[in-house]
Amino acid sequence: MGILDCTAVELGKKIQAGEVSVREAVEAVIEQIEQTEGTYHCYITWDKEGALRQADLIQKKIDAKELTGPLAGVPVAIKDNMTTEGMLTTCASKILGNFVPTYTAEAVRHLQEAGVVIIGKANMDEFAMGSTTETSAYGATKNPWNPEHVPGGSSGGSAAAVAAKECFFALGSDTGGSIRQPAAFCGVVGLKPTYGTVSRYGLIAYGSSLDQIGPLCKDVTDTAVVLETIAKADEKDSTSILRNDTNFTEALIEDVAGIKIGIPRDYFGEGLDPEVSAAVKKAAEELRERGAIVEEFDLSLVDYAIPAYYTIADAEASSNLERFDGIKYGYRTAEYEGLHNMYKKTRSEGFGEEVKRRIMLGSFVLSSGYYDAYYLKALKVKALIKQAFDDAFEKYDIILGPVAPTTAPKLGASLSDPLKMYLGDIYTISVNLAGLPGISVPCGVDSKGLPIGLQMIADCFNENVLIQAAYTYEKIREQLQERQG
Amino acid sequence: MLDYIDQLGELDTDGVEPMSHVHPLCNRFREDVVTNGDDREHILANAPEEKDGTFVVPRTFD
Known about the structure:
- The complex is a heterodimer of chains A (about 475) and B (about 60).
- With about 475 residues, chain A is α/β, with parallel strands linked by helices.
- In chain A, about 40% of the residues lie in helices and about 15% in strands.
- Chain A has one domain: Amidase signature (AS) domain (Amidase signature (AS) enzymes).
- Chain A has helices at about 10-15, 20-40, 50-65, 105-115, 155-165, 180-185, 220-230, 275-290, 300-320, 340-350, 355-365, 370-395, 420-425, 430-435, 465-485, and strands spanning about 45, 75-80, 115-120, 170-175, 190, 210-215, 260-265, 295, 400, 440-445, 450-460.
- In chain A, helix 5 runs parallel beside helix 6, helix 7 packs antiparallel against helix 15 and helix 9 crosses helix 11.
- Chain B has about 60 residues and is mostly loops.
- Chain B has two helices and two strands, in the order ααββ.
- A two-stranded antiparallel ribbon of chain B has the order 1-2.
- The longest helix of chain B has 5 residues, at about 40-45.
- Chain B is flat and about 60 Å long.
- The chains are: A alpha/beta (about 475), B little secondary structure (about 60).
C-alpha cells in the first residue's frame, strides 16, 4: 500500500513510528497534485514550498515528541472560505481575489496545533452558493470518479481533493448540504456537526444561522478524529457551544444493536433516482440485519424546507455580503465617479451571477412590506420543521435517507435552471434549518459508475450515535467487499 | 423563484413563534476589556488604497 492509499489516521501512525517522514507524505501529495490537478482542479491555491517548509518544522516537533497526536504531519486541504494567515483566501470570488488574511480561522488553527500540513485552499462555489462548484470564479472542479461530472458543492474542491488523493482529508462548510452532498458525489465521508460545535470564527459568512464547518475524509475513523480536533468552544463565536461530549473517537464501535432508525417515507417520493433509492434501502436492510430497529415513518413538511431555507439563507447572505464594499479589503473597481458609483461597480464586477441572485432575493425578502410575508413566515416554518424533527427523535435515534436525489450530474447540466439545482438540496437543507448533525457515507455505485451517498441524521449533540452507526455500516461494506473479492 | 417561495403561504403558522436560533441560547457576554489592541497594520494590510494609516475613500460630499 502506497502512502497515498493510507487514511489520515494510518498515515499519522506511520509518521509517529518513523516509517514515513512528513516530507515524504507531503512530497507524495504534491506529486499527485502535479499529475492530476490539471484535470480535476480541486485547489484555488496550493503552495508547494510552503508545505515543504511546514513539513520540516512539524517533523522536528514530532522528533522532539512535542507533537504526538494522530494528525501530526498529515497533509490537508482547507475550503477557501476559511481564513488562513498569509495564504490567499478568495471564497472562490473575484471580490476577494487579492485577499491575504492576517488571521487564521479557529478550526484551522486547531488543526495546525495538531500538526497538520496545509497544502492549499480548496475550490468551492462562490461564497458557498451552489451545489456543483461551478459558480467558482476560478473555474469548475471535476469529479475524480468521472471528470465529465460535477463533484457537488459547495465544498466540491474539498471532496474532490480527498477522492483524488490530493490530500488526506479536508475541511468544508455546510450551510444547506455543502459538506454532505459533495462527499456523496465523490464517494467520501462528510459530517456536518450540530450547529455551534465548531467555531465559525474566520469562516467567511454565508447564512450565519446555518453555517457549520466539518470534515471530509476517507473513512469514518478519520472523520471522528478530525471532528474531535476542531470541536471546541470559542469566545470569538457567540453561537459556539461549550460541549463536554466531544470524545467522538470513543463512538467508533461496531455495533448497531437496538439503535432505532427511522426512514422518512417522504424522502422516497417523486424525483428520487431509483438506483439511489435502492442503494439506500439496501443499506438500511444491512443495518437491520445487524440488530438495528428500522421502520418507516412520515416526517412531514419536507417540501417546505427548500423555500424556507432559500428565504432565510439568502436574507442572511444579503446582510453578510454588505461588507464587501471595495474599501477595507478585496477588489475595488478601477474607475469610478464618487462613492455610490464605486460601490456599484465594485460589487457588480466583483460578484458572480448566483451570488447576485441571492443578494437580490435576500434583500427583497427582508424589505419593508415583504418582511412578514417572506422572512418572518420562513422563520415560523423553520420552527415547524424543527418541531417535526423533535417529534421524530422522540421515536428514533437516527433518521436515514439519501443525501441527494441523484448521483453527480454532468458539468453544465444544473446551472441553467437554478430552481432545479435548489431542489437537489431537498434531503440536506432541513438538517441545517434544525441545527442537527448529519453524516454522508458511501453506500454504493450506480450504473454510470458514480458513487451514491447514504445520509444519517441525529438529534442535536448526538454525533456519537451517527459515528457509531456510520462506522458499523462502513465495516459491513468492507466485509461485503472482502467476500466479493 | 418567488412563486416557488410563495408555497410557504400554504402552511398555517398562526401562533407559531418565529425561530431565529435553533438552540435556546441567551446572549453571552464577556468582560469589557480590550483584547485585540492596536492592530492598524493588519487592518490596513488588504486595503485597496490607504494613506497615512487610514483607508482612502472617494469624496462623500461636496
